[in-house]
Structure formats: structure tokens, C-alpha cells
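REQUEST FORM: STRUCTURE PREDICTION
Request ID: SP-0412
Submitted by: Lab K.M.
Chain count: 1
Length (residues): 254
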Amino acid sequence: MTEPPARIAAADLTAYYGTFAAVKNATIGFASNEVHALIGPSGCGKSTFLRTMNRMHEVVGGHVTGSVVLDGQDIYGSKVSLTQLRRRVGMVFQKPTPFPTMSIYQNVAAGLKVGERLSRNDRDARVERALQQAGLWEEVKDRLKASAVALSGGQQQRLCIARTIAPQPEVVLLDEPTASLDPMGTQRIEETLFGLKKDFTIIIVTHNMQQAARVSDTTSFFYIGQMIETGPTKQIFTNPADPQTEAYITGRFG
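STATUS: Completed
RESULT:
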């Protein structure tokens, strides 16, 4: 079977903080309209690698060698606009981060203030669609002017997903999005991912191997700053090619 073409791909990517290489020589391609899981023990480079996909690691002084290509363009090129890049590659963090002084509506609409100019009707439609895609519309449609921080933790995280997808990015990055949620909130986020991949390429970091097995199409295993193995999730979890992957999957370390 021919592999689908990559929407975004890293080639020989090494990510540094100062002189410390947090990720070394990783090469992975992520196909469109699939969920891709990054697994591995804490501190092995998963989140660092994820943040290189939209250059968020640069916020804390990181830099890379190698390349990350999005739709044929190296996102580390000198002419790349970071603002436009982060509209194309959105990110959701581990802890829900709603803007506390904004309403539910204002939170989702925040990303629509940059770039294209929308009429009020178009903006309203975009906010509603994003909330529907994030599985939150029915719960908040009658209180869009209410404070975002009045929502439960799981609802706040889905609100952050809605805010991220409202500008219609191509790729959505999620860094352990359910780590701080209860089982019900986790389930709702996982259900949301199945719908979202119809419209987006999704890359998720998770420590929960059962979650990776449930939601992802492909899985990549990281260990001590290296990408050890990548492939279809079913193959990674049932017949891994590398002994280190098998040891991690079977619970012998991590």
C-alpha cells in the first residue's frame, strides 16, 4: 500500500536548548486527515518535537537544525511569518488556557482578529462552527457572553480547541490535552478528535498508551531524545520492530 503524502514532515531535525540537544535527528512525516500520536517516557523529547512543528520552542530560546516542511515549504525559512505559520499550525496545551477576561464567544473569536477580515455574520458563523467541531456548541450556545472561566475543566479545554481551529489551520498540535482532566472530560476530548481529523491533520503527545491506541492512526515512539520507531498504531502496539518500543509498550520501563 502506498503511504499517503505528508502534510507536514520533519527531516533530520535536531532541536536544541542552548547547547543541549533535546531531540536528535528525527525524521517523520504526518499525513493529512489522520491522528498521529507521539509516545514515550517523560523527558524524552515528545513535547519539544511537537513544538518545533510551529516554532513554539523558540519562545524559550530553542533552535533547530534540519527542516520542517509544511505543504512543501520549510517553516524555518527566512521569509516565513511566525504569525501566519501559527495560524496554519495551531496548538493546544496540557492545561486549559482560556483568556480569563474574555467571554466564551470572545475566546473563540480571538484568533479571527488576525489576517482575513470577516463580517460580523461570518465571524459568528466561524465561532459557531468551531464550537460545533469541538463538541461544545450545544453546551454553551445560550451563554456565549458568559465568562470562559465559568466552564468546567473539560469544557475549557474544548473551548481552547475551538479557539485553535476557528482560524481553520491545516495542522492541530495537542500537548497532552487530557492530562489534567477527569475520565469524562478525557472521553469527550477523544470523541472530538475523531470528528476533527476529517478537517485537520492532528499530532498529539500523550503519556497514556491506551489513549494513543484508541485515537491515533499512526504512532511514533520517542526515547532519550531520539525517535525510535514510527508506523501504523496497530503495528506499533502489536508487533513493534524495535526492542525498545516493545519494552516500553509492555511496561518494562517508563
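NOTES: Strands lie at 6-17, 20-31, 35-39, 62-70, 73-74, 89-92, 171-175, 201-205, 218-223, 226-232.
Reviewed by: T.R.
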